[in-house]
Design a protein that fits this description.
54% of the residues lie in helices and 6% in strands. It has helices spanning 2-43, 59-64, 69-95, 128-139, 152-155, 169-178, 188-200, 206-220, 226-231, 237-245, 247-252, 262-266, 282-292, 312-319, 324-333, 335-340; strands spanning 110-113, 118-121, 162-163, 180-185, 275-278. Strands 3-1-2-4-5 form a 5-stranded mixed sheet, sandwiched between helices. Helix 7 packs across helix 14 (312-319). The chain is globular.
């Protein structure tokens, strides 16, 4: 009997030791996982106390929950623009059987500013040079202070800005969820004519003349001179339009970014943009973004020269020189941009 009691006491001590060991291990596991997740929780801009950069609200929070009266008025406008994009995407998805998954290459136009938690999708011919300059100031950690002191060619050097496709998949998803995403758009045909004027009528764009101009002349100009075939410097807008709507062009490769649709460059049906700025209200919308980011008092968006800007009247003049069939085909090519960003069908088009 005495031996039995001793055995029971020994087993009880062993059980207590095992239980204590298990409990201790469980506590260690809890602390281990807590230490793993703690940095992520600190970076979450939607967490509670101490959530944001330098103890302040970030741009995304300020956009959707404005603390200033001027932000509240602008929030209504930008909500309407977001709704327009969403409605167009839903209608397009319902009528299209195509489903597409984005690849890293699709994200190369999305410029990231870590310091202010911004993502900007740049669209050529929509003030993208000045916006790249501004992003260099914002993300340069004091290296740049005045956007207009940055040469335009330096603004387009890929290594001067970090784009979203350079991140890992988890980091991409985190930034798409937590950073304010914005882009700027323009009347599609004004942008198209602006691209044509810049790339095909100016002598210094010899690389475009060689790469695209010679091809366009060779394909669409009858009895082209040897000089035109060699230089590609005198492409007519009618020839450019024919190149754009040619099924061969569509099959060859994606359109050049300067005349590619915003829909294809920035993927607004896959990426939820928080703010859609417009070229027509460029400075107002740009400075609104900078105010949301908390730098509105120290940084203003550069003013731009209006004298050389492509206008609606200029676009009408160029489109009057092409056939009604080409007008219809070009409208179909850029239709999603017209609908998504609420641009009216130009009155000068002959769509019947």
């Amino acid at each position: 009997m005495k031996q039995t009691l001793l055995d029971l006491m020994r087993m009880s001590r062993i059980c207590r030791m095992v239980l204590a060991t298990c409990l201790g291990s469980f506590i260690l596991v809890i602390f281990y996982f807590q230490s793993m997740f703690q940095p992520v929780m600190r970076r979450n801009p939607f967490a509670g106390e101490g959530c944001c950069r330098k103890g302040s609200r970030n741009a995304l929070q300020e956009l959707y929950n404005p603390t200033q009266a001027e932000f509240s008025a602008a929030a209504v406008l930008h909500q309407a623009r977001r709704d327009q994009v969403a409605d167009t995407c839903r209608a397009h998805t319902a009528s299209s059987r195509k489903r597409r998954v984005l690849t890293p290459n699709d994200l190369k136009h999305l410029v990231v500013d870590e310091e202010h938690e911004l993502i900007y999708c740049y669209v050529p011919k929509v003030a993208c040079t000045n916006w790249k300059r501004v992003m260099m100031v914002l993300s340069g950690r004091g290296k740049y202070t005045d956007p207009m002191e940055i040469p335009s060619n330096e603004a387009h050097v890929p290594s001067n800005l970090r784009t979203l496709n350079q991140y890992s998949i988890p980091d991409i998803n985190h930034r798409l969820k937590s950073y304010l995403k914005f882009l700027f758009v323009r009347d599609p045909f004004e942008r198209l004519v602006s691209a044509y004027r810049n790339k095909f009528t100016l002598r210094y764009n010899s690389s475009f003349h060689k790469r695209y101009g010679t091809k366009i002349v060779r394909r669409y100009r009858k009895n082209a001179t040897a000089e035109a075939l060699l230089s590609g410097t005198d492409v007519k807008f009618q020839e450019f339009a024919e190149y754009l709507v040619d099924p061969v062009t569509q099959r060859e490769a994606p359109l050049n970014e300067h005349w590619q649709t915003v829909y294809s460059l920035c993927h607004p049906c896959h990426i939820h943009y928080d703010l859609v700025g417009k070229y027509e209200t460029l400075e107002e919308d740009s400075n609104y973004v900078l105010k949301l980011a908390g730098v509105g008092d120290s940084l203003r968006f550069p003013s731009y020269a209006k004298s050389t800007r492509t206008t609606d009247q200029m676009a009408a003049m160029f489109f009057n020189n092409i056939s009604s069939l080409q007008q219809v085909q070009l409208f179909q090519l850029y239709k999603m941009d017209f609908l998504m960003f609420n641009y009216s069908t130009p009155s000068y088009l002959k769509l019947q």
